[in-house]
Amino acid sequence: MFAGAFVVWEIWAGAEESFLAPQASEVLARAWEMWPTRAFLTEVAGSLKQLAAGFVIGAAIGIAIGLVMGTSLAARRALDPLIELARATPPIAIVPALLLTLGFGDSMRIAVIAFGVCFPVLINTVEGVRSVSPEARDTASMLHVGRAERVFRIYLPAALPSIVAGLRVALSIGLVLVVISEFAGEGGGLGHYILDQQGQFAYPEMYAGILFLGLLGYGLNLLFRFAERRVLAWHYGAAGERAR
Amino acid sequence: MSGLGKRYSTHGPAALTGVTFDVERGELLALVGPSGCGKTTLLRLLCGLTSPTEGTVLLDGRPVTKPPREVALVFQDYSRSLFPWLTVIRNVMFPLRRVGLSRAGKIERAEAVLGEMGLHGVARKYPWELSGGMQQRVAIARALVSRPELLLLDEPFASVDALTRAELQDVLLRVHRDVEGRRVTIVHVTHDIDEAVYLADRVLVLSPGPGRVASSVEIGLPRPRTQTVTRSSTRFLDVRNAIHDVISAQQRSTITTSFEKE
């Protein structure tokens, strides 16, 4: 499939004979030269660092607020309209505002990613906590599980499958926002690299950068699924058992 | 407990009214009644999960306002009450998390109770890897591990097949006789009259709308009981038929009353 796509690209770009559309072989050759270089790896590491920081902060905020909203009806009622509005706002729209307040640097980029990551995680956490069965709640009462303990021993593990589903959505949103925030801000990163190469008319390099971004997203997803299978082994087992 | 009543909303109908009974230490009391007679509500009052709107529940003379340490509850739906993210042994150890025992001591105690339930070699499995009957045994083990004085069971065998139910009934009889050398007081809610007669020292028949105690029947069958001998004795059949009569008489009168109202 991949090979077929590259062949089509190669033939089409060959027929175009334009420097705007470099051939697949050229892009691949450039990508092959590029990836082991220190400069390039620094860009990738920069993007990953932003993504990791934004993802962790956003997920932590999402889970924390989600747990509060999931366990307290008052908190849910108070926060729901605000959350609905905020999550309907495309994260890209807050970039100009964040540029004003946080500048062009890392903190702005991390904030954009965290903002985008936060909501899917938050919504899924609330749903997960609310789906805890009355029997499980009663069991917790009978076993004298206190309020704080209940959050960590009952609600969090019970909501985990739902939270992880939110994190998976958040990961792809995060990846989009890394690139966008790098387009808007200053400093390194793969997104910035792509824009830079475009500005310098280095189109094979630009396409190579895009290719690497795709690979990065693909790799991160694989990694995520692997981690998910391990953390939620009990859940998939139980769900499989129910499905039979 | 005395004059126990429960109304879920101030203007709504009472779920229970004027329910008064005592449970003797070491007794196995069964509560039977048609659905909607407030069996589960009564059980929730007994274990302090809900508080009564009239009357009080007394445990050894002290009013029950929140779940007491000495009381354990087993639900009908084991798959929802066992924690699916914990292995069997961790589920059973859960109530011991604040008991002053070493980890090894807790594991030992949990394994001992699992053994009493006839569960061997399942400690590291997850609940969903076990059959329904075995899961309910795990749930009973978790209830017993903290050595409760009073064990409450809410239709515990309603969601397993008939053969497993008979097995679990005998497990419960064994629990009642002796767990780790102690006798446990048991209140067992069921809608299965035969089960109630087979297990209990005494059966309370509840009647619906609003729930109240219609009749208290001493079973007087000798122990130890077995599925074959006990269930075929004339005493078993007599008591069982008597309870059936009480319940069907009530249902007739309830139907008459609702006709008269219209």
Distinctive features:
heterodimer, A: 244 residues, mainly alpha, MetI-like fold, 11 helices, 84% helix, 0% strand, elongated, B: 262 residues, alpha/beta, Rossmann fold, 2 domains, three-stranded antiparallel beta sheet, 39% helix, globular, disordered C terminus
**Second CATH tier, the architecture of the largest domain in chain B:** 3-Layer(aba) Sandwich
Gyration radius of chain B, rounded:
19 Å
Structural class of chain B: alpha/beta
How far is it from the N-terminal to the C-terminal residue of chain B, by CA?
A: 36 Å
In CATH's first tier, which class of the largest domain in chain B applies? Alpha Beta
Estimate the mean pLDDT confidence of chain B: 86
Q: Work out the largest interface and the residue count of each chain.
A: A-B, 20 and 21 residues
Indicate the low-confidence ranges of chain B by residue numbers. Answer: 7-12, 258-262
Question: In the CATH scheme, what's the topology name of chain A?
Answer: MetI-like fold
Binned strand content of chain A: under 5%
**Approximate helicity band of chain A:** over 70%
Question: Could you explain how this protein is built, in words?
Answer:
The complex is a heterodimer of chains A (244) and B (262). Chain A is mainly α. Chain A has one domain (43-243): MetI-like fold. Chain A has helices at 2-16, 24-34, 38-71, 73-88, 95-102, 106-130, 134-142, 147-184, 190-199, 203-231, 233-243. In chain A, helix 2 (24-34) crosses helix 10 (203-231). With 262 residues, chain B is of the alpha/beta class. Chain B has two domains: 1-70 and 148-220, Rossmann fold (3-Layer(aba) Sandwich), CATH 3.40.50; 79-147, no CATH class. Helix content of chain B is 39%, strand content 20%. Chain B contains nine helices and eleven strands. Chain B has helices spanning 39-46, 78-81, 88-93, 103-116, 132-144, 162-177, 193-199, 227-232, 234-261, and strands spanning 2-7, 14-19, 28-32, 54-56, 58-59, 62-63, 71-74, 150-154, 185-190, 202-207, 212-218. In chain B, the strands form three sheets. Chain B has a six-stranded mixed β-sheet with strand order 7-8-9-3-10-11, sandwiched between helices. In chain B, strand 1 (2-7) and strand 2 (14-19) form a beta hairpin. The model of chain B is unreliable at 7-12 and 258-262 (pLDDT under 50). The chains are: A mainly alpha (244), B alpha/beta (262). The A-B interface holds A 133-136, 138-139, 141-144, 154, 157-158, 160, 234-235, 237-238, 241-242 and B 47, 49, 67, 69, 71-73, 75, 77, 80-81, 83-85, 94-95, 98, 126-129.
